[in-house]
Amino acid sequence: MAPNVNLQRMKLQRDIEKLRKDLLKQEKQQKKQQEEEQKKQQEEEQKKQQERKRKKHALIKYSETSLLIDGEFHIDKDVPIIIKGDFNVDFKRNEKAFGFMKKHFDLNMVPTNYPSTLGNSYIDLTFARNISNELLNSVDYILFISSTNPAHNCNISTHD
Q1: Of 138, 153, 147, which Cα lies nearest the Cα of 87?
Q2: Sign (positive/negative) of CA torsion 86, 113, 93, 74?
Q3: Longest dimension (CA), the chain
Q4: Under a CB-based contact definition with an 8 Å cutoff, are residues 110 and 127 in contact?
Q5: 30-44 b/e with 16+ CB inside 10 Å = b?
Q6: C-alpha to C-alpha distance for 110 and 126, rounded to whole angstroms
Q7: Are 84 and 126 spatial neighbours (Cβ–Cβ below 8 Å)?
Q8: Which residues contact residue 102 at a Cβ distance below 8 angstroms, ignoring those fewer than 6 apart?
Q9: In whole angstroms, what is the distance from residue 94 CA to residue 50 CA?
């Protein structure tokens, strides 16, 4: 009877060893799959970031080209100007956007004391050049301009 018990024990040990190897193999496969999924997610995120950078660069390039900011077009920075609108950029949190307006047009943001969205962002803004804040705040002006018919030259006069 002893040889039969030893044979059963050896068979049981082989089965246990086989199960252990199978479990290790499954764990390795799962780990490999997880690593592949993580790598794939990282690659997708990198592609998204590259696409966002590409779009941002293209937009800046387009903006600068469409605004003729290439040295051939002279912007008279002595002319008073007001630019008002929904910029869809929170200028208080985005220094680059503010820097663009300052660098290319010498425009300063008119201080705003209240956010214009539920998310407390400041996207409805007024920029001005060579116009005092006191004058901006003391005069009512209405411009009937739509996004489909933009005004290229506006003379704003104030009457007492």
Answers
A1: 147
A2: positive
A3: 119
A4: yes
A5: eeeeeeeeeeeeeee
A6: 5
A7: yes
A8: 108
A9: 20
Residue given tokens 């590409």 in the structure block = 54
Q: Are 81 and 101 in contact (CB under 8 A)?
A: no
pLDDT at res. 150 = 43
Residues in the chain: 160
Q: How far is CA 98 from CA 44, 77, 78, in A?
A: 31, 17, 19
Q: What is the pTM of this model?
A: 0.41
Task: Return the structure tokens found at 86.
Answer: 């929904």
Domain range list for the chain: 11-73, 81-135
For 36, 49, 50, 125, the CA distances from 46, given in Å and listed in that order, are 15, 5, 6, 33
138 token code pair? 């003391």
Taking the mean position of all CA atoms in its chain, how far away is CA 78?
33
Q: Which amino acid is at 159?
A: H
pLDDT in tens, 51-106: 888 877 766 665 555 555 545 556 778 888 888 777 777 666 777 777 778 887 88
Cα–Cα distance, 129 to 102 (Å, whole number): 10
